[in-house]
Automatic annotation (TrEMBL), chains A, B, C:
Name this protein carries in UniProt: beta-galactosidase
InterPro entries listed in its UniProt record: Beta_galactosidase_Trimer (IPR013738), Class_I_gatase-like (IPR029062), GH (IPR017853), Glyco_hydro_42 (IPR003476), Glyco_hydro_42_N (IPR013529)
Catalytic class of the enzyme: hydrolase
Catalytic reactions on record: Hydrolysis of terminal non-reducing beta-D-galactose residues in beta-D-galactosides
Species for this entry: Paractinoplanes rishiriensis
Glycoside hydrolase family 42 N-terminal domain mapped to chain residues: 14-391
Organism domain of life: Bacteria
Molecular functions (GO terms): beta-galactosidase activity; metal ion binding
UniProt record similarity statement: Belongs to the glycosyl hydrolase 42 family.
GO cellular component terms given for this protein: beta-galactosidase complex
Keyword Metal-binding part of the UniProt annotation: yes
All copies of domain Beta-galactosidase trimerisation, residue ranges: 404-604
Length: 674, 674, 674
């Protein structure tokens, strides 16, 4: 990993050019007062960098960099390729992205472009080289962000589709092979020549969709890698290159994308106010913002997973983030809580979006650190307190490795396919485009509710915890399934959830009894399954089955839980079997919050008891020191009994093991285990 | 009717070409073991029959036909015109169907074609002749299915629209006549010449819509008749020609279509599991699958109605049928129940869709007889039991004429018009595109709940029961209305529901007091009406009025029920009057389940009492033998007292009149009245 | 104002040309019997006036005008430009309106045209001149309606967009100015030349939207003014020119539009039956029909506001108005109630839409005075009673100035902007496109529920009541905000609601602490705010806060009400402060029905008590006589104690002050205070 400062970077995106009047010095002074150590600049204003085709105006940023540097504030310099100037759109309308073949996106927002188009690339390269050439040497610049939240569209432009066809041609060799592998005998889809391939607009074949989504994500990876390589021609030693990832974008594969970056950077937006309350039985919608403490922690764990190492938070809520109809600024204390939670899971930068609330444009109600008045308000004061805390905590909390009790295998290809072919229904019976999360999240949340900490991986090889949970791994090759069995045989406890091991990497249902290649070791198989529209009580563990039932037939396994139902009762809900040195447990349903928690308490019986509004997470500093984070997610104060001797990182107190520590409303304590 | 085997045909659609590995012999052996007598083949794979333009590959089906024949399994051979090969789409993109003028359907599914286009017809004729020429003589082939579930789209292609204009020109003669008949004075729509006619995309005039929908259905009829005639050039004596009808398709008129077929064939898909439970107070959505026993029975009665004779079930649920998010395989026993119900209403073939669950393609989760594992599972075992029952029942149950206590008049043109101009609202106040069924179904279901059996007709002339119920007959010519009055005068009990007799065949509101041409005989009229957003209690019969109230003014009739409401209470809900030798009853509202049941108990007072989970249906064999079917639609066993002396068709028991017969969970008994 | 008859005009739109058979004399006799004094004719049938390009047929209307005149029925003559003939659409398809750039509206309804297109204007002028030239001199004609409910579309045609760009060029001078004023630095939107401006289809920038909506409304105003000027070349002295306004149309600015008319004319459609019941706690959807007595009164007060003078009701419900699925004809008495309510608020014509219920076309179920039978039904009889009442009331009630206790400032530009950038969410969390009314209506309704009468203005200068309420005035220039403060300083009680004074006229958030330019005088400011998804109880006044909270910080004000909430409780809900001779009250939330009523009882403490189903409104005749209207909106009779000595305008009774007057179900009394 690129060398980063030995403390948590703390700051905001800063758009001096958006301020309605001159206030550079005032802004930077207020940042310094709040102990800011970093700002991000320049990524949104291509038309300011280059007001006309080939006419460059690069000087405007100089005072910002100088002013930041004078105050010891580092700078991440962004490239502006995500927002194309109107003159470029006018000159080459063919670069306009298409959401359906031949239907161009209307201009007026950003990311409307087919970023694979050579006419775009020509201009993008030119402006990137100019900016990097001009500012890479500035001493304030510690790194670069190329583009911004890429992968926002599934591009249907002709060039993209033709290259998709070429990619298939290279991958499969001839149409006979594609016809066979995709099952194109079905509904008369056999191609006679590559030119027969239909465009994606009307496609309803899953096999096509698997390839299409993979290809789309590969375009994003290629584009960002290309830009990162451009920057690397200019950067000084020690400067990093990254991009900020919005993990819900449809065309981004964080795993492959970050192979081309020096550090992962992500934008975890989350809902504030009551959405952060614990205990939490809500089943809140998750969109590009997460909702719930467990969901915020999941977004942190996904960022850690991209490179299995600490990461940067390039954007997160300053004020409330969302449309003009969705202003919900945090309660006092929640900013600190969220920031420390992110740090506890490996964040080594907390950079807010953004410094000042904008006075014009789409995001007029995406709240910044400063309100529209430009005068420090509640947000600034809360963040200044947090800045002081980061100052005090110093290197102890920078680049933490978060604790993990259990590991989850996450499959982007399965998620993509389930967006179009979901196994779960919405409450009104329609397809649930978030079905992958409908399978994955209840397990992750169950671990969270059971007081466990989780790691997320995309390959079985990366697992180093005694429990591995795999829900919804619909697309899997033989090798991956065999590695899962190997994990159990070698002593791990493998937990399989619904839909895992059902299809091959082409999205074809396997011809085995399910779970394929694992049924024998699991001692249970199924060849039928059912959706549930009402919840079904379960015996054996507390809670209820929801949404799905696999018809598990036990050949040689112990039944852990069973359905209380005249039809489904014939099948167990959960089975378990010793395998080699380990164990395979099969969960044939989507557990509700109670059953999920009970499942994880059964999986990892040892756990402390904390009040229901409290979470405790732990992590290890690069130098081996051990840190604990205790949060109280409630208006109601709480008291927690400590298990070890600890020192208060943010204060002077030292507590012996067994002591009690008091938390106020929406409070967080950072403790060094000594 | 074409000569069909003297037993219920039993089998499945069989796609050997879709199997992921060779297993023809194994498949056919398993079919034979389950007593299959028929398979349907070949209708989906034009691109296999003709991999390139003019290159034919016809041999692949031979082993399937031979293998079936060896085992005594008959074959229905399909023509593949519903699924166009990619090469044809590439060569002649102008054959692509358009859902709006100029907007082509995306390729990638099936039925994307303008089947009226000569470039399509040229190729369709060629492949149909090749397949029929090759296989008509095969001894296994007992019949042909041309195309598949036709009428899936309202085609807006230029040729279709121009022929629509020509059709109007031929029908009306000149624009002055059209202007007058369609009321085109309204909103300045008078045409000056035929070229003035607007395309259907923006049309909001009901008169246009009536003609447009009729024309669309006529295209489907013409296409299927054309193909059927092609096949007739090749078929052997005794072989039948049909197509499989999905009755909810927007452009199919089963009544006219089946005039060109040798036998009706339909695809009644239905919801399994709790959807089949009785008693049933749910108001489930009905889509292309029915939901509820009454709704399954309705779909059977509609198939019988197409030609007023027994029919084939070409497709029905093997495993669960629906999207990947909608897997609900039957409870044990439900397959038998549904099959015997269909047979009791006149089905002489039960052919499941489909033999094996597909491993690729859109329908990967449309469940077949075999699961993805290819090993017989619960479905196969349940169907094998049923196969044995059909074997035992033999000719007694093949080609039954179902009993009918009451008759319903069904109007496709009224249904079509109400899809765009519905008289009923959805719960949120919007237009209910299923309003025709919103009017029709509560009456049909009331008869079902009252223990009655129904026949459906499209012309008053076809009625031969003492009660005729006519809800929602919005479009009707004078002659039809006069025939209805004539039915009553001749001794029948005519029951009119809301909207009947309101408009003429052009969809123009009549200028009479309503119900037009019937008000005087009914002794009641109305000139106003109201939608209801809340239900209104009714006095006189149990139950409530829903959705609609006609302001019935009694001139000379007896009030049967009245609204309990400060405004609507001025009008009766139901009136009745002797007319000639019969009677006319007017129902001014949509009855809820209680009121509908009470209405039919009042209409047909004599009825036996059975437990609330039990239905009893009856039918007559071609040779005059009388059969009874007793179903228990519940997990709870039931006991039924028999009214006649019967023999158990599926066992050896004989029961005297008055004996009790026990039914298990989801059980069915077939009894021969002796 | 144009000279109008000294009595309330009473009648209907009359489409003799739509009748299915000849019945002119019968229709006119029935109108005369119901005391009709006016009909509107001719506005929908351009293709009848001009069956082919340049061939005119103008005589058909003569018998209608003659027949009306013979019976003393006046005529408003409409121009038919809202419904373009098919031949014109065929000749010049480029006149078709576009809802998105390049996407033409489908023909088949009406108002499909780009009315700014010269090819349309050429033909529109020709037909208007022909009709006006032919009939302006007819003695029956008292006025003209040009076009009909204009402003139905936001037109995206090329010419419209290019003139929009020209308009910006003229308004801002150069792109540098536009870049600065619109903040186009944001997201690289800076223009290099006018040709860079993007079309509105993909726009997400509020500043663009402000200009676009203003420009669209200006097109409508220009078109109507152009037609009105054409008519003025032909009209006789005393004949008025107007158009009928549907106030919810997206491109109509009634304030500016009516500057070019002689009298305001509007089409207040409303929901009948239970929607008119009081007391009313429903939060009914408001669409192009209002729902609730308060909402009907609001639509009347908006019509009065357009020119701050009495107005014509050109269309309102005869029978039920709406789609075929939404028939809800009034309860007995409701027609009278609604008509007298409109008159009490300044209506000097009540013209129903329409005489006879149409037998064909889209509006077959928009109910007329006569039902489809053509025989007088309940509606005719109810209206005949009302006609007699208007006859009796005579000049007393024609051209009333309605009483006003409080004034509301209404901002169309704020409403338009909030349709795309709403500050309020729907219950499911999405943007509420009716957010402006979400802010405005609860205050208006609070005044209504408190028994107060309201006036609506668009400029502070028009206020002449002691209380001025300003919710949701998001877009405001400095001068307007200063005038508001001036109103308070001069002795008025200014009540500010959420979002008022937040942005400048370009839609840019102001840089002040809020409410901008008013916070100091109000003694309270805020720099943050929150949406509410659940209601929050309030202390100090009865009721609850909903949807929005401003974080009010008191500098020098009295707290009237406070939130009962652990977070929001830090801020007051309502503050008040003496300012000069008056007072400023700030309401930081959207009050629920209880809080809104309590607020207005606090604002205007003196009020009489009437039963909860009763309203009392008052008005002054042009000659100074005072009238009271007492309505009982319920099936339950009510008794009201009179405060003054009154004479029953519709009867012979005279009541002393303190007497009680009895109202039947859905009754209304008109009283002359003597």
């Amino acid at each position: 990993m690129t060398e980063l400062p030995r403390r948590v970077l703390f700051g905001a995106a800063y758009y001096h050019e958006y301020q309605p009047y001159e206030r550079l010095e005032e802004d930077l002074d207020l940042m310094a007062e709040a102990r800011f150590t970093v700002i991000r600049v320049g990524e949104s204003v291509w038309s300011t960098w280059e007001p006309e085709n080939g006419q460059f105006a690069l000087d405007w940023l100089q005072p910002v960099l100088d002013g930041a540097h004078e105050r010891g504030i580092a700078v991440i310099l962004g490239t502006p390729t995500y927002a194309v100037p109107p003159w470029l759109a006018r000159l080459y309308p063919e670069i306009t992205g298409e959401r359906r073949t031949g239907e161009r996106i209307g201009w007026g927002a950003r990311q409307e472009v087919d970023f694979t188009h050579p006419a775009f690339r020509f201009h993008a390269e030119r402006i990137v080289r100019r900016i990097a050439g001009r500012y890479a040497a500035h001493p304030a610049v510690i790194g670069f962000q190329v583009d911004n939240e890429p992968g926002n569209e599934l591009l249907h432009n002709r060039g993209v589709f033709q290259r998709f066809t070429d990619d298939l041609r290279h991958r499969y060799g001839d149409v006979a092979t594609l016809n066979r592998e995709w099952g194109l005998v079905y509904w008369s889809h056999r191609l006679s020549t590559w030119a027969d391939l239909w465009t994606p607009d009307g496609n309803v074949q899953p096999q096509y969709d698997v390839a299409w989504r993979r290809f789309q994500a590969a375009q994003t990876t290629e584009f960002i890698a290309w830009q990162a390589d451009l920057i690397r021609e200019y950067r000084r030693p020690g400067q990093f290159v990254t991009t900020c990832i919005a993990y819900e974008r449809p065309a981004v594969d964080d795993d492959r994308l970050t192979d081309h970056l020096d550090v992962t950077a992500g934008n975890p937006y989350y809902r504030m106010q009551d959405a952060l309350e614990l205990p939490d039985r809500r089943s809140a919608d998750q969109h590009w913002t997460s909702s719930g403490v467990w969901a915020l922690q999941l977004s942190a764990d996904r960022m850690y997973a991209s490179r299995q190492e600490p990461f940067l938070v390039t954007e997160t809520n300053a004020g409330s983030i969302g449309g003009p109809w969705d202003n919900r600024p945090a309660y006092d204390g929640q900013w600190r809580q969220a920031a420390w939670l992110l740090v506890s899971r490996g964040a080594r930068m907390i950079e807010y979006w953004h410094w000042h609330t904008l006075h014009f444009g789409t995001e007029t109600y995406w709240g910044g650190v400063l309100p529209h008045s430009g005068k420090p308000g509640r947000t600034w004061h809360e963040l200044a307190r947090l800045g002081a805390e980061f100052d005090r905590a110093g290197d102890l909390v920078a680049g933490l490795t978060p604790d993990a009790d259990v590991t989850f295998l996450f499959s982007l290809p399965s998620k993509w396919l389930m967006q179009k072919y979901p196994p779960l229904a919405t409450p009104d019976g329609g397809p649930d485009a978030r079905a992958y999360h409908g399978l994955f999240d209840p397990f992750y949340r169950g671990a969270f509710d059971a007081g466990l900490q989780s790691r997320i991986v995309s390959r079985p090889a990366d697992v180093d915890t005694p429990v591995l949970v795999v829900p919804g791994l619909y697309l899997a090759d033989d090798d991956t399934l065999d590695q899962l069995r190997g994990y159990a045989e070698a002593g791990g406890h493998l937990v399989l959830g619904p839909r895992t091991g059902y299809a091959d990497p082409e999205g074809r249902a396997r011809t085995d009894r399910m779970p394929a290649r694992l049924a024998e070791a699991a001692g249970a198989w199924y060849d039928e399954f059912s959706n549930l529209s009402t919840e079904v009580p379960v015996d054996g563990l507390d809670g209820r089955a929801t949404r799905w039932v696999d018809g598990l037939t036990v050949t040689d396994a112990t039944v852990v839980a069973r359905y209380d139902h005249p039809h489904f009762g014939r099948w167990p809900a959960i089975t378990t079997r010793r395998v080699g040195a380990g164990r395979i447990t099969v969960v044939g349903t989507v557990p509700d919050v109670d059953l999920a928690k009970a499942l994880f308490r059964w999986l990892v019986p040892q756990h402390g008891e904390v009040p229901p509004s409290v979470t405790v997470t732990g992590a290890t500093a690069p130098d081996g020191r051990v840190v604990r984070f205790v949060h109280n997610w409630s208006f109601t104060p709480a008291v927690v009994r400590l298990e070890s001797h600890v020192a208060d990182v943010l204060g002077d107190d030292v507590y012996p093991a067994g002591a009690e520590i008091a938390l106020g409303p929406w409070d967080v304590r950072v403790l060094n285990v000594t």
